[in-house]
Amino acid sequence: MIEKFNINEIFFSIQGEGTRAGLPCIFIRMQGCMLRCRWCDTDYALELNTPKNIMTIGEILEKIKEYDCPFVELTGGEPLTQKNTYLLAKYLCDSGYQVAIETNGYADVSRLDSRVIKILDLKCPGSGMSKFNNYSNLNFLDKKDEVKFVIADENDFHWAVEIMKQFNLIERVGAVLVSPAFGLMEPRKLAELVLSSHLNIRLQLQIHKYIWEPNTRGV
Fold it and tell me: Of 23, 98, 160, 210, which has the most beta carbons under 10 Å away?
């Protein structure tokens, strides 16, 4: 049986977030997500049952070869909504790519190939989805991985700090990131909260939204 994937888009751009921000990256945006965050900026990729580009692994590989870049990120939506994404991630690793996945904190990461860089987006209360966080996923993170919190207000930040401490995240993973929910939290205010916390955490901005118009797709 040939595995097929519902792909929203594949594009080549600058990594906008995380510890690799500013680096060239091939993005494979998978269609479908099981969550509905209040501040979601990719609502066009949420519905799994909406066919976009149905592609095989071979077709995906042929497409990403066009970009001559060794770094690939699986994103969404939520890439692990499609259960065969675990196979795709392994295949990309086997093909010599450095592979990262941005995943929502609910989907099971335990089945991912150990070579995959996991960027786990734990949902704060302001998202409306914090009850879906699967904290057992944290057991499968290590120093190559990252945990991200999107912060909509000051309450979200204090909640995130408690989670960091409860699960020893700063020591567990390579980076703990806090990002202002675009249009809801002022970056300067979040910077002040980071400084006052005296914690080894990283403020990140979605730099692609400053390079291009914020709603631009394919960047």
Answer: 160
Q: pLDDT category, 216, cuts 50, 70, 90?
A: confident
- Residue in the block written with tokens 């969404």: 76
Mean pLDDT score, 161-181: 97
SS (H, E, C) 145-159: CEEEEEECCHHHHHH
Q: How far apart are CA 78 and CA 163, in angstroms?
A: 22
